[in-house]
Every structure is written in C-alpha cells, then in structure tokens.
Amino acid sequence: MNWETEGFLLSKKKFRENANIISVFTKTKGKVSGIVYGGNSRKIRNYLQIGNKIFLSYSSKNENSIGYFKTELIDPISPKFFDNKEKTTAIMSTSNLLNQLLPESQNHQTIYRNLELLNDQYNYEYWIIHFIFWELNLVMVLIWKNLKIIKTTYKLSNLME
Asked: What pTM was estimated for this model as a whole?
C-alpha cells in the first residue's frame, strides 16, 4: 500500500538508534502513524517539529502493519513561534488534542481545513480568538459525528426488537 499526501506532524517518539515513530494528520487519510528512518539525523530532525506541515510518502506491506514514511518539509509552522510561549503552547495543544481524539485512518477533511485556517491565524494579533473557536468547532464536529453513529445504532436496535 503506497500513497503520497501532505499533513501536520502530531507527535514523534524515538525508535531504535536513528528512527522515529511519528503520527501525522493528513488531508485524505486522517491520522496515520509510521516509522521515519533517519529521523534523528541532523537533516530530518530539524524539520520534524510538532505542528510542521510536511509532505509524506507512505509505504507498507498491507493495511494492518505499520508503514514507513519519507518526509519533506512544506511549511515550518513551529519554528516561526519558538520565541512566543503562548503560540508554541497553542500549537502543541492542537497537535496533542488531535493525536488523542482522532481515531486512526479516518478521514476528517473539515477538521483538517480548520487546522490549516488556524495555522494561518497565528500571524495575527487576535489569534487566540480563532484558537478558542477552533477548539469549540473540533468538539462540535467530533460530537456530531458520534451522535450520527449513536442515532443510526439506536434506529437499528429498535428495528431488531
């Protein structure tokens, strides 16, 4: 299974001597995890910063096994705000929320589009208002999706009685 897309880096963990296991949020595949060989090298380590937008080439033997990423930097979002504690914390918070709340391999284009818009707002003075509304919208989108599932399940269980 091979594909290419762009996404935002949500988390990274050191794996063996020179590799990382990363979790990314992509436009077409949702949240996906995989191994980046050479992730601790100087070249790759510099742009594998949480929140950065990266281009991904993914390959795996099948859907059930962990795959391998080749990555390239598209937009360095995190380094722009290393000198601003509040913005850095907001970027880390969005990445952590998405990493914890989103299931693997489920497409969430609305959330992805809203994250892109939020990342553009960090350059402006009133970015915090957009951040708060992004969080509210995230909760609404996730709850609404779950309510649809519950409603469908409830209807099916009533039909079975």
From this structure: 0.83
CA quadruple 38, 42, 47, 49: dihedral, nearest 10:
90
All structural domains of the chain with their residue ranges: 2-154
- How far is it, in rounded angstroms, from Cα 34 to Cα 39? 11
Assess contact for 55 and 6: CB atoms under 8 A. yes
Neighbours of 55 (CB within 10 A): 14
pLDDT tens-digit readout, 126-153: 999 999 999 999 988 888 766 655 555 5
Res 103 pLDDT > 60: yes
Token readout for 135 is 């969080």
Distance CA 123, CA 109 (A): 23
CATH superfamily name and code, 2-154: Nucleic acid-binding proteins (2.40.50.140)
